[in-house]
Amino acid sequence: MKHSVVLLGLGLCMMTSVIRAQPAPPPSNLDVYQQIAVACVTEAPAALDAFRLAMPAQMPYLRTALMERWQAQQKQVYLADSSYTAAPAALSTLTVQIEQAEVHYERAARKQVQRAVTLGLQYTVVGGDGQLLHEARCADTVRDTVPRDQLDALASPYPETQAEPPAAGWFRRHGQPAILTAATAVTVYLFFALRSDRANNTP
Fold first, then answer.
1. E strands present in the chain
2. Nearest to residue 94, comparing CAs of 53, 62, 137, 148?
3. CATH code of the domain made up of 23-165
4. Buried b (16+ CB within 10 A) or exposed e, 17-40
5. Domain boundaries, the chain
6. CB atoms within 10 A of CB 10
7. What average pLDDT does the segment 65-69 reach?
């Protein structure tokens, strides 16, 4: 009985160690874009309790992330391109333009890839009277290392989240095929050599 309890405890400890050892998956490229946009633009309407938001149709998930953050701050946000919500005429307008969005991969350590996600935004805040209240640009690049076999999972149907994987290294392009060819040749040679030896030893 005591041995069973000890073995059970050891098994649970091993399972816990395995679970803890598994790294969390990296954020998707879309998630990284959202993080950059929130960090860049969230404070632009800091002095406003309510405003219109004008953003291009490109990368709609950026608008979603920004809207969620402002709503969490108890701000009233009206979409400039929506006909369902009538905003007061005197509201200020925050306009956000996307100037750059790019994902780039480079070779890193074995089975790893260096990822760089770059987002550049330009935004203006115009008062209800047409006066320019604030204007700025914000660009940032987030770099990290991700597993090569997860590159497809990091992308999404949006083209700006996709990028060509880095070219394989010299060993992977030339060394591995050469080794496989040599191994195949040795296997074939040994196969026929053994057959020949058996034939010679047969009375």
1. 50-54, 76-79, 92-107, 112-126, 132-147
2. 53
3. 3.30.160
4. eeeeeeeeebbbbbbbbbbbbbeb
5. 23-165, 168-196
6. 10
7. 97
